[in-house]
Design a protein that fits this description.
heterotrimer, A: alpha+beta, two-stranded antiparallel sheet, globular, B: Ubiquitin-like (UB roll), DNA polymerase, domain 1, 5 strands, about 25% helix
Chain lengths: ~140, ~180, ~775
């Protein structure tokens, strides 16, 4: 099944009793392109994530529009969250300054974080913009 | 189950509950108390051992997973046979370069994190004999220390690396001690 | 007293107990095994407050392997522990619960698993009460009384001069309220004891601890035994920092009671979660502070009102209260000081001793005030401190005058020499995303009283015994918990006796073999402990010299002991091995063992105003920290950290660095990373994932600067160093962050999220 359908809630997956996860398949077309991941926690080592984000992009060449993009964030919702609205804003576009400002705001709006023992909802919402910026910048590097 | 594995260079056979924690197998059953329990949840690294040369938290490892594999504990760094990988010839009181460096650099205070810290460092130096500071930090990031502030620990690992600190080679045995660990 | 050339003292020799630690051979308490040993696990309260109606162990006792359950009724003695009368803490609670995690019963079984299962199966009925959780709630006159005497644990004042006059004259005043949070010791080895009953009616308790005599006294009282029937042995201890005082006593009493009752050895080894919840924390503090000065920066008056949240039991609260009082005004010459400090009970895990002992909290407040003042006066913060810094001959906040060993100004000057230019973006031209970083520099000065001060009698016993083979055995009543005191004692003995270090053994601490020396706290090991070792060694040296003078047929004043020889000073080739001297001394009848007693002068002070002579010495320090802060995430990178301390004399410079680096990182944790999270009185982060003690990637680039202004009351002029770095680092960090962000943070820890929130608010304000 698609990974998106596998995660149902906090510590809950689509596995039925007596089932075990046997393999994770990544289509080879996804191996093209570039990805980057950023996380942040309370400290620098042995980090339990307060919030994290992964970005995967594919484009023909540097400076070109994004052919395909995936953005997913963790610790911002009951499940790992695909940020589909954000993806839509960037798909087929050239990621320039003004667009990125709008996209960063969209990232902050699309996530659904809570406050818990790790950190506050406000911090999660604030800091994910910086993580997204850094992850995307790394993925766009040539 | 009948567990057969190599422990500090020696073949070992023992009847165990498969779900016995490796930490308890070492400390309670085999009497090797050098490996410590600091948290029981894999969050502090005090229980670090080497499994086929890789640093792992023995508090999270079922004994069953040791089947057919090589385990090194802190006791294995100064064995009766000499160096950690069981090579022949050597003084049981002779310290591994990492142990000496930890001593000379003042990287030991209470000593509780030390066995785990040294083994994580050994795992690093065995695969990367000339690590930069970032590599050292990465390798030791799972080992917490509350006494030293870590600065001298980093210097000790660097010193051991300069001395050729991987000690007894890569575990292929043999009759001559390899490495410039002397 | 101080010979011209020292051979061993002053050298950074490796720890004498190092080899057994790096090989894993050293036995910590949990490594010990005794035939027939049983395991004890406590059943703990799951709510923070309530009346205990019943504790039912019938189900627990049916579990295979479980041998017994102990409750308060099974304590032969009064079931009470504590540090300062009136002792208010039960070993096992029986009438009421005062904090979540409090021990209600001990289940003893033949395996740890069975004991855990047994503990879980104990049925407890508690009528819950509304917990009293905040300082203000506790102080309300109609609030529920956590203890019969009310919710104030201890309250004292320090009065020097007249602050009202001082403020009236002041031309500039700064005022603010500061808060600090609960901190956990987080030593890597959780609390562990093993009690072994002997056939001779004695019980021996092996403990991971720092106050073996304290434990002995309480075990004897609670077991209704004479103290001479109880022996406490300190095993190798994996860190303590003040945290293994009360709780080691609690589980020591429990294990001993169980061992005596069941005629079997009993081990209690805490798991990490119960270590965090069930043992003392650092007091959280709220400090309202006012400082007044002239326009040129001369301090005229300082006034502080301090509240300490001490949790459910008194523990060390009275002493922390006094120490906070005494240190609140900082290492400055201030003519008018008024400090009021009140410790309060709440239904949370109790607070007690923690490296620094109130000084880190008040230093943060005091040093923040000074920077706020420097800002108003447009003065360099270090210069403001220098011009007010205490000099020899000036009175401290308690009116005590030291003629010597007041090295504060030297530490400030060394920092000024080494500091270089403040960091700024221009210094890092090629850093990616340059505008993203904010740079700042902060400094702090501190003082930390050495040894017990006002907390009671200050004595240490030490023994030195030289054998016929010329080797020496040293025993001291103070414990090594990693800080290296055994090594320091060995160095002192070696220096005095002229022996090489390999001929010296420092034995394990056990209460049978040395005089009651009190707890190993307050940075006292080197100073008071070292002095006792020095005295004992000198007595034995006298015997050796007397014998040597007979053998050389010349006066003792022409002889020296060095490198395992007795040597003729004028002609060092003429020498006799010390082992021959020792053998001859034995056969001639000169005593080769001495038990010495070092007693620091009692504190003499007025208990209403805390004016008088309180400490035998103070350690003075100055810290400087450069940081850069990521504006988008709140992450802080410490670019530089200088820590200068006047320690009198460094007996072992590597050991000193170790204490400074380790203490600094603990202060950094207090200031930036660590916070015990309570909700409804329950600790939410009792593990090493969510309680963010620093990892190797969080370490500081601490550079230790040693200043030596010899202390007449310490061996070779030494003063302690264990605690001071905590306070200096925390305060310097807060000032550095304030300088970088332009925001004064008044609450510790200043976490990434706090910084980001403040920067965003600042930006919002700027744009509106």
């Amino acid at each position: 099944m698609p990974a998106e359908e596998f995660f149902l809630g906090p510590k809950a997956t689509a596995l039925r009793p007596c089932e075990i996860l046997e393999s994770i398949l990544i289509p080879s077309c996804r191996l093209k392109g570039r990805s980057a991941f950023r996380m942040i926690g309370k400290r620098n080592g042995q980090v339990i994530s307060q919030v994290n984000i992964a970005v995967w992009i594919r484009r023909a060449g540097s400076g070109d529009a994004l052919e395909e993009i995936r953005v997913a964030a963790g610790s911002v919702a009951p499940i790992p969250l695909r940020l589909k609205k954000v993806e839509e804003m960037l798909r087929g576009r050239v990621p320039d300054g003004p667009l990125l400002d709008a996209v960063r705001r969209a990232v902050q709006e699309e996530i659904r974080p809570i406050s818990d023992v790790r950190t506050s909802e406000e911090y999660r919402r604030s800091v994910i913009a910086a993580l997204f910026r850094d992850a995307l910048a790394e993925a766009l590097e040539d | 189950m009948l567990l057969e594995f190599e422990l500090n260079g020696k073949p070992t056979r023992i009847e165990v509950e498969p779900t016995l924690r490796t930490l308890d197998l070492l400390r309670e059953v085999l009497g090797l108390t050098g490996t410590k329990e600091g948290c029981g949840r894999g969050e502090c690294g005090a229980c670090t051992i080497l499994l086929d040369g890789e640093a792992v938290n023995s508090c999270l490892l079922y004994a069953a997973k040791l089947q057919g594999r090589k385990v090194t504990t802190i006791e294995g760094l100064t064995t009766e046979d000499g160096t950690a990988d069981g090579a022949e010839g050597g003084d049981p009181n002779e310290l591994h370069p990492l142990q000496e460096a930890f001593l000379s650099e003042g990287a030991v205070q209470c000593g509780f994190c030390t066995p785990g810290m040294i083994l994580s460092a050994k795992s690093l130096l065995d695969r990367n004999p000339d690590p930069d500071v970032q590599a050292i930090e990465e390798a030791l990031s799972g080992n917490l220390c509350r006494c030293t502030g870590y600065g001298k620990i980093v210097r000790a690992v660097q010193k051991a690396a300069r001395r050729g600190g991987s000690g007894g080679g890569s575990g292929t045995g043999g009759s001559v001690r390899s490495g410039s660990s002397g | 007293m101080i010979p011209e050339k020292l051979r061993v003292v002053g050298r950074g020799i490796p720890k004498v107990d190092g080899p057994e630690l790096v090989t894993g051979r050293a036995k910590f308490t949990g490594d010990l095994k005794f035939p027939g040993m049983l395991y004890g696990v406590a059943r703990r309260a799951e709510i923070p407050a309530g009346r205990i109606r019943s504790i039912d162990g019938s189900e627990a006792l049916r579990i295979p392997g479980v041998k017994a359950m102990l409750t308060a009724e099974d304590m032969p003695g009064p079931n009470i522990i504590g540090i300062f009368p009136p002792f208010d803490q039960p070993v096992l609670a029986s009438r009421e619960v005062r904090y979540e995690g409090e021990s209600l019963a001990l289940v003893v079984a033949d395996s740890r698993e069975a004991a855990k299962r047994g503990a879980a199966a104990v049925r407890v009925e508690i009528d819950p009460w509304e917990p009293v959780l905040e300082i203000d709630a506790a102080l309300k006159p109609d609030s529920r009384k956590i203890h019969p005497g009310g919710n104030i644990t201890f309250s004292k004042k320090l009065i020097k001069g007249d602050v009202e006059e001082g403020f009236a004259e002041a031309e500039v005043v700064v005022e603010n309220t500061y808060c600090t949070s609960f901190q956990e010791h987080a030593y890597l080895e959780p609390e562990t004891v093993a009690a072994v009953p002997g056939g001779d009616g004695r019980v021996t308790v092996y403990a991971s601890c720092q106050s073996p005599f304290h434990i002995r006294g309480h075990i004897a009282a609670n077991l209704n035994l004479p103290a001479s029937r109880v022996k406490v042995v300190q095993a190798y201890t994996g860190g303590s920092f003040g945290g293994k005082d009360d709780v080691a006593t609690e589980i020591g009493c429990l294990a001993a009671a169980a061992a005596v009752k069941l005629h079997a050895p009993v081990m209690i080894a805490h798991e990490r979660g119960e270590s965090i919840i069930g043992s003392n924390l650092r007091h959280a503090a709220r400090i309202h502070y006012r400082t007044g000065s002239l326009k040129d920066g001369t301090l005229l008056a300082r006034e502080a009102r301090i509240y300490l949240d001490g949790g459910a039991y008194a523990s060390e609260s009275p002493f922390v209260t006094m120490k906070a009082l005494i240190h609140a005004a900082g290492p400055y010459n201030v003519p008018n000081v008024l400090v009021e400090c009140t410790a309060v009970y709440t239904n949370k895990t109790y607070c007690g001793a923690f490296r620094g002992f109130g000084v880190p909290q008040v230093t943060f407040a005091s040093e923040s005030q000074l920077d706020e003042l420097a800002g108003k006066l447009n003065m360099d913060p270090l210069q403001l401190r220098r011009s007010n810094g205490l000099r020899a001959g000036q009175a401290t906040a308690t009116g005590q005058i030291f003629e010597r060993s007041v090295g504060l100004l030297q530490t400030i000057d060394r920092i000024a020499e080494h500091r270089g230019k403040a960091p700024a973006a221009a210094a890092f031209p090629r850093a990616a995303g340059q505008k993203r970083w904010l740079y700042g520099r902060g400094c702090a000065c501190l003082l930390q009283g050495i040894s017990n001060g006002a907390e009671g009698i200050d004595v240490v016993g030490a023994s030195v015994q030289v054998s016929q083979d010329g080797s020496a055995l040293v025993g001291v009543g103070l414990t090594d918990m990693g800080q290296g005191s055994r090594t320091v004692f060995a160095q002192i003995a070696a220096e005095v006796l002229g022996l090489t270090l390999d001929r010296i053994t420092v034995r394990q601490v056990d209460t049978d073999s040395v005089h009651d020396s009190g707890p190993t706290v307050a940075s006292r090991s080197t100073t008071v402990g070292g002095m006792a070792v020095y005295k004992a060694a000198v007595e034995v040296k006298t015997s050796l010299l007397k014998m040597a003078s007979l053998m050389f047929k010349c006066g003792e004043d022409r002889l020296r002991l060095e490198e395992n020889f007795a040597v003729l000073t004028d002609n060092p080739e003429t020498r006799i091995p010390l082992k021959e001297v020792a053998t001859a001394a034995y056969w001639t009848g000169f005593p080769l063992m001495h038990l010495a007693f070092s007693r620091a002068p009692d504190a003499k002070f007025d208990h209403e105003t805390h004016q008088g002579d309180i400490y035998i010495a103070y350690n003075f320090g100055t810290h400087l920290m450069d940081v850069r802060i990521d504006r988008l995430t709140g992450r802080v990178e410490v670019l530089r950290h200088l820590a200068a301390h006047d320690i009198g004399r460094a007996i072992n410079p590597v050991g000193v660095e170790g204490q400074v680096e380790g203490g600094a990182l603990m202060g950094f944790g207090l200031a930036h990373l660590e916070r015990i999270e309570h909700e409804g009185g329950r600790i939410q982060n009792a593990n090493f994932a969510d309680y963010a003690l620093p990892s190797i990637k969080d370490r500081l680039p601490t550079e230790t600067i040693i200043v030596e202004d010899p202390n007449p009351t310490g061996p070779f002029g030494a003063k302690g160093i264990g605690e001071p770095p905590v306070a200096g680092t925390a305060a310097a960090f807060a000032n550095a962050v304030a300088a970088a962000t332009g925001v004064r943070f008044t609450r510790l820890p200043i976490r990434r999220e706090d910084i980001l929130a403040a920067l965003e608010a600042q930006q919002a304000n700027n744009s509106s």
